[in-house]
Amino acid sequence: MDYRESTMSLGITDKLLCPCCGSQQHSVNSVITYAFYFFEYLPIFPVKRETRVQCLQCQHPANSASDRKLIFSDLSLAFFNKLRLLSTFTGSVLIIILLSYYFSDEQQKNRQSQAYIDAPKVNDFYYLDYRKVAGDKRSQNNYRIAKIVDITGGTVSLTYGNYFYPMKNALNNGLRFGHSTNFDYFEKKRQHFSYAELDKLFQQGFIYRVVRPDFNMIGRNKAVYMIDGNPVSSTTEAKKAWRYIPGKRQNTQGMAYLNANYIADRFEQAFVLLQQSAELGYAPGQTNLAELYLTGIEGSRDIENAAHWLFQAALQGYQPAIEKYRVICQLEETCEIEDFYRALNEAGTSYQIN
Length: 354
Prior knowledge:
This protein is α+β, with helices and mostly antiparallel strands and 354 residues long. The chain folds into 3 domains: 2-92, no CATH class; 119-236, no CATH class; 242-346, Alpha Horseshoe (Serine Threonine Protein Phosphatase 5, Tetratricopeptide repeat). It has helices spanning 65-71, 75-86, 90-118, 131-134, 168-176, 195-204, 248-258, 266-279, 283-295, 303-315, 319-331, 337-346, and strands at 2-13, 26-36, 45-55, 125-129, 143-152, 155-160, 191-194, 207-211, 214-217, 222-227, 230-231, 236-237. The protein has a 5-stranded antiparallel sheet with strand order 7-6-5-4-8. Strands 9, 10, 11 and 12 form a 4-stranded antiparallel sheet that branches. A 3-stranded antiparallel sheet has the order 1-2-3. Helix 7 (248-258) packs antiparallel against helix 8 and helix 9 runs antiparallel to helix 10 (303-315). The two termini are 55 Å apart.
């Protein structure tokens, strides 16, 4: 912190008589010493205030208390001197305003992140702070990004980014410059968490921000996920070419009912349509029906039926169903994942293990 004097002329007074030369003309100056950071002409707060009175003819100072009282009997001059003092708090006022805006914005982001933690969706981005688990021992590996790639029942699957960042700004700049659009940015391995575990990590500060990208069209049939107007995913086909596939229509209608909050019996109607889609052999319909069984929206949770329909979809090589089956198999003691892989191999199914 540095200090500077600011002098302002308050005019000339004829209310005093100089004891040296007898002149009645005296200059009145207000001198305020104030503190500042970096910007010399932006005062933070005053340190000292004084009024200097000098004879214009012989430069003799007249700074006695009685002299100042006589000068400032003029109300307007006294008010101006007080107002001048208040102006030296300009920097403090600006700092308070900026801090208020910053903390208000941070609280809003924190509330939004909590809402996304409570109701996660695929493609949500998690900003991770590894200092909460590793301390300051990894100064260059403090921050990381994770992304939701699947939600099976009450289990959320994340993939972590392959890159660490030393500061939060570096992480934000990494997203802004398109790091996450690289095909090898995220790890292939998936990490599985329950809703309660994610909420605990958020409360601990390990997950310090959750962002839900916007799905934006960038061409006739191309789209990309964006955060703050910056692409964070590679371009995808927005709408696939239409062709008739048994069960696809029922699946589309069923998912539309699930999202129609204004329909009272939307779950019942969605269940009927998704069941029709699954029986027609449509793999996404079978997977979505399994999700209903897993979440217990249509009655109680039914792991057996969910596993059945995921297995049927997996036999068709539908990768989301394969990943979901692996998740529920880890949660069930009686499930043997080797038997699942053996069945896929015997059916000649093409699949990947991430």
